[in-house]
Amino acid sequence: MEDKWLYWEVTHHLHRFCNPVSDAAIDELGGLLDLGPETRILDIACGHAEMIARWSERYGCTGVGVDLSPYVLERARARTDKFEFVLADGAEYEPEERFDVVSCVGASWIWKGFRGTLEAQRDRVKPGGLILNGEPYWYTRRPPEAGEEEGFHTLHECHSIARELGLTTLWMRGATQEEWDRYEMLQATAVDRWARANPDHPGLPAIRAQHEKLKDDYLRWGRAGYGFAIWIFRS
């Protein structure tokens, strides 16, 4: 559709975290990352910044959030003033510093896949720092219905790729089915509410059509075919 960021704004408007994670998962991750007042975080595709805002409130950490959507950055800036927010393509953003933690959750398309994303994160983290990555994965193999553009890996393949890049796997947490369902179906509720409030919006037909396809894919083969995992790697 013409304005893809409007699509993401509409479908994810009800989400605090724009990925299949829960409050408990984010709290657990914050503890595992050894965060503190001196910790500097770079969060690529930061979305609404709920994750880093919570960590800043609890641990005092600061840093930079980067996203290409002007909609989410408006909400992120209203959420916390402890982070600098940059409107930019993550692949083109070249920070002047290296960070203690570099995060990219659910946006490996920025660097054309899991391997490219880990390489980019490795280039932006301090030696010995931590990489936080969130990525869909196939449970066993690619379902026949999935298009070739769905270039995911199995969990073991993800672990092997990280090891090939000189990273050490410290943690992996798969999303629960409840977290996945909530993430996917909350989008359906958000689209319905937005459509009822904006029945004459020129973008509504395209938003509905795209969402109906993705919803059908999830219920037809995605729910049984792939999961979502968050990883912590030591550089």
State the end-to-end CA separation.
38 Å
CATH homologous superfamily grouping of one domain: Vaccinia Virus protein VP39
Roughly what fraction of the amino acids lie in strands? 15-25%
CATH topology of one domain: Rossmann fold
Task: Name the shape in a single word.
Answer: globular
CATH architecture of one domain: 3-Layer(aba) Sandwich
- Looking at how many chains there are and whether they match, the oligomeric state comes to single chain
Radius of gyration: 18 Å
Q: Characterize the biggest β-sheet.
A: 8 strands, mixed
* Helix-strand topology string: HHEHEHEEHEEHEHHE
Overall pLDDT level: 94
**What is the number of beta strands?**
8
List the helices and strands and how they pair.
Elements: H1 4-11, H2 23-32, E1 40-44, H3 50-59, E2 62-67, H4 70-79, E3 83-87, E4 99-105, H5 114-124, E5 125-138, E6 153-154, H6 155-164, E7 168-174, H7 177-197, H8 204-225, E8 226-234
Parallel strand pairs: 1-2, 1-4, 2-3, 4-5, 5-6
Antiparallel strand pairs: 5-8, 7-8
Helix pairs in contact: 7-8
